């Protein structure tokens, strides 16, 4: 119990680090650069900079908070085994008999994927049949719908319930870092040419540019990668391990075209796309597929010995 408590506390260290860096960047930009250095700015330029800075700051913090504090979506009760099936499943020692129980329980469920060996995907930890694109997170100790990955920087799973928030967090953090680096660049150059007044503010300016540029470069690659994933309608897990359908493994099995893939994450109303408000389509359990697949009952009773095509 003590070990688990320590792990939970330590899991917040990356989030606390990001919070401290963001809080310092706010102080360095607003107080040290804009307010304490009035000679460095023309008044109207300072006002414009502060307005744009606070807009990007608010959207960044908002989307980051939603990513952190949105609970991962878990499968509904219909995917849990009944009490009788659960008792029978635990009594059976042969995997074939256990699979037969799972096939009967899954015949009416909207499931189109299986394991690589054509078995029903079942979580022994949560004791439920996994919906398509659902995976068990060992850090959160729950099955997460459309799980992408567990992110230590938000101390949360990124999945169906908060994937949009995660993308917006990456986008607004990029804009935040880009704006800070671009507006501080001229003072960073003056620092190296000894044109900047010799005050403690110049060290804030120096580190502010370095930190903003470093985070921008690191986040840019991650954001670009997830934009590619959205266009292909894949999760990070599915990129490394293609889901297995009735016709065999297919990494593009859930792709419906770039436009529909985008709407699946951001919703149909474009006016809400840039706001950290949940607008994703579906319930996280039913996903349209690109393939013409057999119905769930036929899929559930598919032979494990049938070779993949």
Automatic annotation (TrEMBL):
Enzyme class, UniProt record, top EC level: transferase
EC number: 2.3.1.225
InterPro entries per UniProt: Palmitoyltrfase_DHHC (IPR001594), PFA4/ZDH16/20/ERF2-like (IPR039859)
Regions crossing the membrane: 9-29, 41-62, 165-189, 201-225
Cellular compartments annotated: Membrane
Any GO molecular function: protein-cysteine S-palmitoyltransferase activity
Protein name: Palmitoyltransferase
Organism: Cettia cetti
Gene this protein is translated from: Zdhhc20
